[in-house]
Amino acid sequence: KCLKKCLKSHQKTRELLLKTYFANHKNVWSLGSLTFYEPIHCHFLSQVMLVGDSGVGKTCLLVRFKDGAFLAGSFISTVGIDFRNKVMSIDAVKVKLQIWDTAGQERFRSVTHAYYRDAHALLLLYDVTNKASFDNIRAWLTEIHEYAQQDVVVMLLGNKADVTHDRVVKREEGEKLAKEFGVPFMETSAKSGLNVELAFTAVARELKHRTMKEPDEPKFQLQEYVDKEMRTAGCCRS
Ligand SMILES: Nc1nc2c(ncn2[C@@H]2O[C@H](COP(=O)(O)OP(=O)(O)OP(=O)(O)O)[C@@H](O)[C@H]2O)c(=O)[nH]1
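The joint structure predicted for all components is written out below.
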C-alpha cells in the first residue's frame, strides 16, 4: 500500500522503477539496489465441497454465503458440479475458498466421486424437514470415507432450520449422529442466513490452522470454536 501511494505521488520514482519478473517471484519489484516485495494477496487456496441429497439446500447455502441472498422460488437442481470462489480473512491471513456445489441427484454420483479426492473440506448437508435426507447421511459418510482424502475436514449441517411446522429431524438427532461419527455439527438456514458464515469460517479456520500451524501449537478444535461462537452470539447468528 505504502509503495503504491509513493508511486502515485512521485512520478519520477515511477519512471525509475523497473518491474522485474523473476522466474518464480512475480511480485518482486526492483529500484536500483532496492527490492520491494508486493504483499501476496491470497495466502492459500482450499477446496470445499458441498454434498448431500438433492434438495437439501447446497446451492442456496453457497449463494447465501457468496452473495448474501436467498434463492427463493422454483427449485433448479444442479447438473454435475458448479463452483464459486470466496476469499476470507482469517487472522490477517487470506484464505481463498474454492467451493464446489455438487449435484445431489443419484445420476450424477460418478461426477461427484471424481472430485472427492481433491477436496480439503466437505460440508455434508441434510434437510431438517426431510427424514430421508437425514437417514442417507450414513451412506454419504461411507462414500466420503471411500473416495475422499483420509484427513479431509467433514462438517455435518442440518439445513432449513428456519422451518418450524414441517421439521421432522430434531437438532438433538443431528448432534447424536455427528457425535457417533466424530464430526462437528450445526444447524443452518440458507433462507435466514443462520450460521452460514460461521460454517464456512469454521472450516476455513481449521484449514488455515492445519496449513500454518507451529509444531508445538495445540490442535484447533472445530466443534469447540463453533459452540463458543454460537454462545457469544446468543445461540444463533446470521
Ligand atoms: N425454508 C428453506 N428452504 C430452503 C433452504 N435452503 C434451500 N431451500 C429450498 O430448498 C430447495 C432446494 O434448494 P437447492 O439449494 O437448490 O438444493 P440442492 O441441495 O442444491 O439440490 P441439488 O442441486 O438437486 O443437489 C429450493 O426450493 C430452496 O428454495 C433453507 O435454508 N430454508
